[in-house]
Specification:
The chain is α/β, with parallel strands linked by helices and 311 residues long. The protein has one domain: 3-Layer(aba) Sandwich (Rossmann fold), CATH 3.40.50.720. It has 11 helices and 10 strands. The longest helix has 22 residues. Bound molecules: NADP nicotinamide-adenine-dinucleotide phosphate (NAP).
Length: 311
């Protein structure tokens, strides 16, 4: 497998004086990226919902932990207020936290709806991050050459090898699965496509403000992303046969997006991935994201819907 790697020059860059905030940075791919960035001298803030786990992992790499639960709008508001009062610059915001396939809404603690009634994957992966980005807008726009990295997935296209041939779409008539029969992976794909469409529109909206916005797919990383999936919902053996990347390899696209001066505003950056379209499977830094539901009309509609949900 030809895994895409971040360049050695970028991994040796001195990041002293840079402030980087990563959501979900104390586990999985996020932690692998955070560890590397902290080793290069950046001031790293790992934001997540478990104080005990977060403080211990932050301590391990010389980072700082701050509490943030992306399912809870009050927590996002409190986090942002505290962050803005303590920091005067934010060079990189990496929206990395996420959940996948937690089960039908309200069947267990991982699948519980937000207090607004939002489906958990849409709430945590997309809407929580969108609220965070908008609340951090002043500091992102006042920091010279800042960037927002919104971690999406090849699932924003489709899940062709997971027994789920369905094309991802954002159904704005029932985004929170209140009337449709629930499907875990369709809901995951919907949240990841919503993130991607939002990222592209954010790039457009903020392009005059000097903030660049990019969206990566990290590849199949050997993380605990499916830890709350109900037994039988995910065919883990079939997924393993596709080849899983180490967390360090899966962090390479995150790192490129966080570090490269060459990144292009409003572009998709991808590790090799299981896209429906074979020409996309080799990934690229950046690569064109081609998918039937990735349209400019959908982009505008998802942006407008998102802003109305989080306002
Ligand atoms: N692994 C893959 O193959 C793959 C492929 C494509 C895209 N991605 C994306 O990559 C990102 C990282 O995933 P991963 O594979 O590294 O998964 P992971 O190991 O499960 O890490 C996810 C992180 O998100 C945090 N998180 C979950 N719910 C949260 C909430 N309500 N508030 C704040 N933080 C929360 C988790 O914290 P807790 O430990 O407290 O739950 C954890 O730190 C995700 O956006 C995922 O969708 C992953």
């Amino acid at each position: 497998m030809n895994i895409i790697q971040c360049s050695q020059a970028l991994l040796a860059k001195d990041l002293t004086g840079k402030t980087i905030l990563i959501t979900g940075g104390y586990a999985g791919i996020g932690f692998a990226a955070a560890k590397q960035l902290a080793s290069q001298g950046a001031h790293l803030i790992l934001a997540g919902r478990s104080r005990m786990k977060g403080a211990s992992m932050a301590n391990e790499i010389g980072a700082r932990f701050m509490e943030l639960d992306l399912l809870d709008s009050d927590s996002i508001n409190q986090f942002s207020k505290a962050f803005l009062s303590e920091y005067s610059a934010l060079d990189v915001l990496i929206c990395n936290a996420g959940i996948s396939a937690p089960g039908a809404p309200d069947t267990n603690s991982a699948s519980r709806r937000s207090k607004e009634g939002w489906e958990a994957q849409m709430a945590i992966n997309h809407l929580g991050h969108a609220r965070l980005i908008q609340l951090l807008k002043p500091i992102l726009q006042s920091t010279v050459n800042s960037r927002v990295v919104i971690v999406s997935s090849c699932a924003a296209d489709s899940m062709p090898y997971a027994g789920q041939p369905n094309q991802a779409d954002v159904d704005l008539t029932d985004p929170h699965w209140k009337r449709r029969a629930y499907n875990d992976m369709d809901a995951y794909g919907q949240s990841k496509l919503a993130q991607l469409l939002y990222a592209f529109e954010l790039a457009e909206q903020w392009k005059e403000e000097g903030v660049r916005v990019v969206a990566p797919h990290p590849g199949w990383g050997d993380s605990e992303l499916f830890r709350s999936a109900p037994e039988g919902a995910i065919d883990r053996d079939a997924w393993r046969q596709l080849g899983m990347l180490s967390l360090e390899d899966a962090a390479q696209v995150h790192l490129h997006c966080a570090l490269s001066e060459e990144i292009e505003n409003g572009k998709f950056y991808s590790q090799i991935g299981v896209y429906g379209n074979p020409s996309m499977q080799g990934g690229g830094l950046p690569m064109e994201f081609v998918s039937p539901n990735f349209t400019s009309e959908k982009q505008k509609a998802v942006w407008a819907w998102t802003q109305s949900e989080i306002e």
